[in-house]
Write a structure and sequence with these properties.
heterodimer; A: about 400 residues; mainly alpha; Formate dehydrogenase/DMSO reductase fold; 15 helices; B: about 375 residues; Alpha-Beta Plaits; three-stranded mixed β-sheet; about 45% helix; rod-shaped
């Protein structure tokens, strides 16, 4: 306040300007959505009731937030204690990811204030969406509790920090179970539409596909995100994080490489069981092969090479590739291969406000991550709790 | 850990128990099949009889108090477009030109009121219900507007009020449930001038349909659409042309929609139960490994310490012995030296005084010992 000129200089950084524009557009779309309705801001119609707010914001958001439960499992259940440096960033990403999924749903569903209905008021237990809703609600609560230690340390609430530390193992176990259930259920949502989803993507194993792919999606996100954080928030990273993050990358990349090969195997089994081989020769088959070979098989091989050569840079780039593959898969299941039999003019493609809403929501996530990571002990250890992380 | 193992398992079994107890008939007993409510009502649409007059559309619009469309119902040019029900249109009639047939074929489209509806099983707030009378009812007071019913419907029927910002509803044919309760026919059935629509119990309608196919085998193909499709529907269709050419999919199969997801739902409590075992098991194993590693490390350290101690002891003993021998050697050397010196002295101070030499030898001895 005392020195207005330098302050004004720091406020108009490229990051802030771009963010400001996105938030402004997002605000306008928000007003339109809640005054004119979904019809005014989306390309949705009666044949295509779900667009990118479900296909990207919900399905990709949840899959890419899987790093939270995967890292917790690696560190606290499988006993890879040195992976603890990755735990807090992963939990923060997961918490923000899920919170933004719920935010996106407020735009998408007709009456967002009724979102608690399935949990507290009228339980449609025969629906897989009920399963998803219940698990996401519970897991968001778990993630919130799992993140509180960082906030308590920041606030110097020693008593609260002590209490939450005592139940952390229960939270971890609960989180893994809930994640297993809703990650798989998001795939199982599409079990009910064998007539609408292309046979190459529809399978009785959809739930397993979604669960397994969420594991390596989470691992890839942890590696990829560290690369980003290392570049833009380097000052927040302490020495332990700096060193151990490379070991996390090597460990997760190795595990992901195996998982992706296993995932390819069960995809082949799915095709064999439904006898969908003849579809591979069609254009849809080509697209399916692009996804499976180009975005699962190849990155799995490159991961293996990267681990052998101990090439962290290569692993980070490959992780970006894997993340793109997961996005491709979720969009294929929910949008591209969904309604594949409809003529082209009845198919869905997102419009500008829809895309901007998604960009707006992702931007909120980035801003919040930056705000929290520059204040709370996420990328570094709090001096009062050197060993208790 | 802050909680005991017993408490933890107590909570978890409570969680699983509630999962199992509150899940009514997720997958009914095998061998038992739901074939619809006894005496539930439906409509038979005889496509052969339909002339495409759109009177049913008008009646539907009227009895449901829907907004007037831009183009009037007597404008038959609309029939050329391939239409589907929308937010303010619960039913439509589409026209199809069939190769090899002179006259076009008209097909009415609306909610088929499935016996085991996909939309009902997909709704996560029970806003959709299959009533024993046959209608699939929608309760807007529960609906969140997630549109999963629209995704799930194999016939692409439910529509949504996309232009309603805050209170959008799902809309679809109600089978005129309110009219049925008053003892009236559904609006479309009542107005149809060609009796292309017949209202009755589903069993009766199937019987009528079979009879018509039997009596006029050249008029109809031998297929009652809706008798088995997706586990059966309350609306039934007989047609002079294959249904696939009438925008009615013949590849839907006979499995009712809920059966497609019951397996995944049934897996939920199993996953919960086994995951608890698996996760706590892995945790226990890694903890145990840690302990074992710690014990092994301790044992190794002890072992090393013992070996080193033994070695040290051995060295001390050797050193001590060496010191002892050195000492003895030194004494001997000194004694010898003293003797030699004494002998030399004796030789120097003449040989007559031998007793003085003896004396000097005695006095040097204790002195040397003290020094050492």
């Amino acid at each position: 306040m005392a020195q207005p000129t330098p302050r004004a200089n720091t406020l108009f950084t490229p990051f802030n300007v771009v963010t400001g524009i996105i938030l402004l557009i997002g605000g306008i779309v928000t007003i339109l959505r809640f005054t004119k309705g979904l019809g005014a801001v989306t390309n949705l119609d009666d044949n295509n009731p779900w667009g990118i707010w479900i296909g990207f914001d919900l399905l990709c958001g949840v899959a890419l937030a899987a790093g939270g439960y995967v890292t917790c499992a690696a560190c606290y259940i499988f006993g890879l204690k040195k992976f603890r440096v990755a735990v807090r960033p992963a939990i923060l990403t997961a918490l923000l990811g899920y919170a933004l999924v719920v935010l996106a749903l407020h735009y998408d569903v007709g009456r967002p204030w009724r979102l608690p209905f399935p949990i507290f008021f009228s339980q449609g237990t025969s629906s897989l969406l009920f399963e998803v809703a219940l698990c996401v609600f519970l897991y968001l609560s778990v993630l919130f509790l799992e993140f509180t230690p960082a906030a308590f340390e920041w606030l110097h609430w020693k008593r609260a920090r002590y209490i939450i530390g005592k139940i952390s193992l229960v939270l971890v176990i609960f989180g893994i179970i809930l994640s297993t259930l809703h990650q798989s259920s998001l795939g199982a949502l599409f079990l009910i539409v064998p007539s609408k989803l292309h046979p190459l993507w529809h399978s009785g194993y959809l739930a397993v596909y979604f669960f397994i792919s969420s594991i390596f999606a989470g691992m890839a996100m942890v590696i990829f995100e560290h690369a980003i954080v290392d570049r833009f928030l380097h000052d927040e990273i302490d020495e332990e994080h700096d060193i151990e993050s490379n070991n996390v990358a090597l460990g997760f990349a190795k595990a992901a490489s195996f998982l992706m090969m296993g995932y390819l195997m069960i995809q082949v089994i799915g095709i064999a069981i439904d006898n969908d081989w003849h579809h591979l020769g069609t254009r849809w088959g080509l697209w399916y092969l692009v996804e499976m070979v180009g975005f699962v098989g190849l990155p799995a091989v490159v991961y293996a090479i990267g681990v052998r050569e101990q090439n962290i840079k290569l692993l980070q780039w490959t992780s970006g590739w894997v993340v793109l593959g997961i996005i491709l898969n979720r969009l294929n299941v929910s949008l591209v291969a969904f309604n594949w039999q409809l003529p082209l003019d009845q198919r869905y493609f997102p419009n500008f406000p829809e895309i901007m809403t998604t960009v707006f929501i992702v931007t909120i996530g980035v801003v919040l991550f930056k705000w929290i990571a520059t204040r709370m002990p996420v990328l570094h250890v709090h001096p009062d709790y050197p060993d208790d992380h | 850990m802050g909680i005991t193992r017993r408490q933890f398992f107590g909570w978890m079994s409570a969680a699983i128990g509630s999962q199992v107890a509150f899940r009514p008939n997720a997958n009914a007993a095998p061998g038992k099949q739901f074939t619809g409510y006894d005496g539930s009502m439906g409509v038979l649409h005889d496509i052969y009889r339909c002339i495409g007059c759109r009177k049913c559309e008008a009646a539907c619009n009227q009895v449901n108090d829907l907004p007037r469309p831009d183009r009037p119902f007597d404008d038959l040019a609309v029939l050329k477009e391939n239409r589907r029900p929308h937010a303010d249109t619960y039913t439509i009639v589409n026209k199809f030109d069939i190769p090899g047939r002179q006259l076009p074929v008209y097909v009415k489209k609306q909610c088929n009121h499935c016996m085991e509806p996909a939309c009902v099983s997909a709704c996560f707030v029970k806003a959709l219900k299959k009533t024993p009378t046959g209608a699939v009812e929608y309760d807007a007071s529960l609906c969140v507007g997630c549109r999963y019913c629209m995704i799930a419907c194999p016939f692409n029927i439910p529509a949504y009020e996309y232009d309603n910002p805050l209170t959008p509803e799902i809309t679809k044919c109600t089978l005129c449930q309110p009219r049925i309760e008053k003892g009236q026919l559904p609006g479309c059935v009542e107005i149809c001038p060609k009796e292309a629509l017949t209202f009755g119990t589903r069993e009766e309608l199937i019987e009528i349909a079979r009879q018509r196919i039997r009596n006029f085998p050249d008029r109809y193909i031998d297929h009652i659409y809706g008798e088995h499709e997706m586990g059966g529907t309350s609306w039934l269709y007989i047609s002079p042309a294959p249904f696939a050419g009438l925008d009615m999919r013949e590849d839907l199969g006979t499995t009712p929609a809920p059966a497609l997801t019951s397996g995944a739902l049934a897996a939920v409590p199993v996953v919960v139960s086994l995951w608890i075992v698996f996760i706590t098991g892995v945790y226990a194993i890694s903890k145990r490994k840690e302990q074992m590693a710690e014990t092994d490390k301790q044992a190794a350290v002890d072992d090393v310490r013992k070996t080193e101690q033994d070695k040290l002891n051995q060295t001390v003993i050797t050193l001590r012995e060496k010191a002892k021998t050195d000492q003895e050697a030194a004494i001997k050397r000194e004694v010898k030296k003293a003797l030699e010196e004494a002998a030399k002295q004796a030789a120097q101070t003449d040989t007559d005084d031998s007793s003085s030499a003896q004396q000097s030898s005695d006095s040097t001895h204790p002195g040397k010992q003290e020094k050492e």
